[in-house]
Design goal:
Blueprint: E1 14-17, H1 27-41, H2 48-66, H3 70-84, H4 91-102, H5 115-125, E2 127-133, H6 136-146, E3 154-158, H7 163-173, E4 180-184, H8 187-196, E5 200-203, E6 224-226
Parallel strand pairs: 1-2, 1-4, 2-3, 4-5, 5-6
Helix pairs in contact: 1-3, 2-3, 3-4
Amino acid sequence: MVTLATAKPRNNLTLFIDADDTLWENNIYFERAIDDFIGFLQHSTLDAAQIRASLLEIERANVKVHGYGARSFAQSLRDAYINLSEREISPDDISVILGYGERILSHPLELIEGVKETLEVLATRHTLVLFTKGHEEDQRLKIDASGLLPYFAHTHIAMEKEVASYHDLIATTGATREQTWMIGNSPKSDIRPALEAGLSAVLIPHRHTWQMEHAEIEERHERLIVLQRFSQLLQHF
């Protein structure tokens, strides 16, 4: 693994940069909705961890059909409520449950500390590519609201971030694997497939990273840097 002590800033690279929970807060709003859901459910025997585990399994199934984003999440909350509720289910209850997911769409976007200032500098040194996944309309709205679009030469929204996705993006942008880095918070989507595609990667962990984005990675990988803050990128790039 490259460390802060050994890395040196360099110029003229291509940096693929994740969006949700890398540039701006995202999963924290889903976590709050889950807390509200658990409180509304008031299950007599299942604790919060058990309810979350049940919801996660439903989410795993639903993303295959409905994709990612608040709308798919709202559907998962609805399905979980129908499966777990111990009382008669009413239309009003369903409206409340769906509201927990839908309100995420209207939540003001909150940039992570240091992101804008760091991008301002990085954009003068390198080619920046915004690479995110999810519901395209939702992601476009967040990108527009962020005010960060001028720093990026390209933006790409994928249904999934898999090894093939990185090969495709390399071809689309004309980048070279040797000179390209992927930066993000998700081991599953940002780091592991990027490394497998021959890129280098920077992991910036977020304490609220979605459980479905967790994955085992080799932190001592020779093409991986692990940082604690987005602003630390300037020490490397």
